Amino acid sequence: MWGSNQVGLGASNTEPCKIPEQRKISVPHWQRSAKFFWLSEIMILLTRKAEFSSAHFYWNPDWSEEENVRVFGKCANRQGHGHNYTLEVTVAGEIDAVSGFVVDLKRLKEIMEREVVSVYDHRHLNFEVPEFAEMIPTTENLALAIWRRLEGKMENGRLHRVRVYEMPDLFADFYGEGA
After folding, report:
1. Would residue 75 show up in a list of annotated catalytic residues for this protein?
2. Does residue 166 have an active-site annotation?
3. Which of 101, 109, 167, 175 has a C-alpha 20 to 30 A away from that of 86?
4. Cα–Cα distance measured from residue 79 to residue 77, given in angstroms and rounded to the nearest whole number
5. Active-site pick, 15, 122, 124, 177
6. The overall pTM is greater than 0.85
7. Cα distance between residue 127 and residue 125, in whole Å
8. Domains, the chain, ordered by start
9. Catalytic: 115?
């Protein structure tokens, strides 16, 4: 049975494990059980999904129409075509000993809605979203643009990854400018 000062069992399964003094953390009395115990140094990756629908086309204005069609195929149709995108935002951080959260999930959802979904959903990316006036809205560039929209907006944790699915079998991951 777990005692108030035991953190686990040793190799013999009868002696408590010894944790070096510098690794011990203060745990509220209501969390002193195997069910609620963790070390604050454990890094957790938490991912939240969102969906948005957008239209786009691929076109490089420095190329001829023939070159655009050769490279981009049907995606070079300037009328555009649409996708139902899935966005995954992964945040890295330590578990808060009081709340049990890495980040406030409601707040993360609000940030994703404000910074991405409300801006991209039911929009023609080439014409209605500022960052794509000069950048071809490929899946890769969407991941980069979304990272830039979200970076620095999290109060707790840090942005770890942005994944954008254009289709179930096609996605792009972005881990930051220096990754």
Report:
1. yes
2. yes
3. 101
4. 5
5. 122
6. no
7. 6
8. 1-37 (no CATH), 43-174 (3.30.479.10)
9. no
